[in-house]
Amino acid sequence: MYEEFYGLKEKPFNLTPDPRFFFLSENHREAFEHLLYGIREKEGFILLTGEVGTGKTTLCRALLNKFGSNATDSALIFNPMLSEQELLQCILSDFGVQSSATTKKELLDELNQFLLRQQTLNRNSVLIIDEAQNLALPVLEEIRILSNLETEKEKLLQIILIGQIELKEKLSLPRLRQLNQRISIRYHLRPLGSDEIPRYVQHRLMVAGSAGDVKFTSGAVQEISRYSHGIPRLINLASDRALLAGYAEQSREIHRRIVVKGLKSLEGEETSVPRGGLRRRLGLGLGGLLVFFVGILVGTLFLDSGSAPFRGIFGFNHSRSLVEVPGQLGAAKETPFYTIQLGSYEAKAEAMKVAQRVKATGYPIFLAQDDKSDGSGLHRLYLGRFTLKAEAEKVAETFKKAGSFSEVTVLLTPLIALPIKRNNEFNY
Questions:
Q1: Is the residue at 91 inside a domain?
Q2: Is 133 among the domain residues?
Q3: What DSSP string describes 252-302?
Q4: Using one digit for the tens of pLDDT, what is the confidence trace for 151-201?
């Protein structure tokens, strides 16, 4: 939209993990070198963790580009919603192996034969699993077994686990201690330092084709730094909205006020109401009140009963009764979030069955029932509590690819959704 005005060939601050825009901060460079060292020395297991949006996937794609010029073949798994057998099938497929195997043993045998052929050709084989914090415990155990594919001298397969901080917590579980002990290289990816953010912004502008027609002032960069805390994804969000706000003002110099204006639009806080907008907002406000009161009357359904604490829809630990839900809904209005609707089910048992399937992801699970006096309302299943829409859409895309859910839609704070109670086994 604004590319031509700023003399850009493409948008510089897309949220997609494009390795061409990979920025080598000191921390990212160290992480990259750790990964390369682990692969070259055939260390077996490598762990890369980091907060949401710190650039783990972009680093992963840059690593794959590096492989292109070396004697290394890779398999990349983005979808964590896999069974043990599906994981093996995906690994073989990504390595380009056409398999007709139908059992886990046959799949493992085929993978072992492939890796032995690779060794005779003096080629490395690397398995990269992104979003590994969402892998179920049995699948993680299957990954440990893959490390047993080795000769007397070396591992046949290098395995890189990439995930959020929850992955470290999951690996510390007693059940996974054998896997945890086999990880020889660990690296935690940190946000950018305040001195690196101006260089990051300039780097992405240059890659996008900037010839210096657009400039971010020091005040603008400070505001972006304050908002993002050095997290690249949030820097991209803030910078993109700032360029859009600057384009609206026909200004090629992005200063603090323009960044603030862009951030307000990002948060849905426009500073002025266009003609006709007031009437529409009043209508939306009345509609919101209606939904609010319907929400009080609707969701009275829990999957489980008892007194064990659980995480509710707004992130609190609850042991309270449902009469307190209205107050929680009021809190959600101030802090909206995104969730994923996985499907609508006629029977409660069917919804519960699906909930059991997805509980291993570690995301909060919510259930709401349509308000029907005869009890025939649909049971709607929701997953996750996401601050950023882009993050929710990324997870939703994973579920869409799985192809076993009736409907996958990203929604903004469903007010009628009440939490399904979760047992301790849910809290990985």
A1: yes
A2: yes
A3: SEE-HHHHHHHHHHHTT--SS--TTHHHHHHHHHHHHHHHHHHHHHS----
A4: 778 888 999 999 998 998 899 998 999 999 999 999 999 999 999 999 999
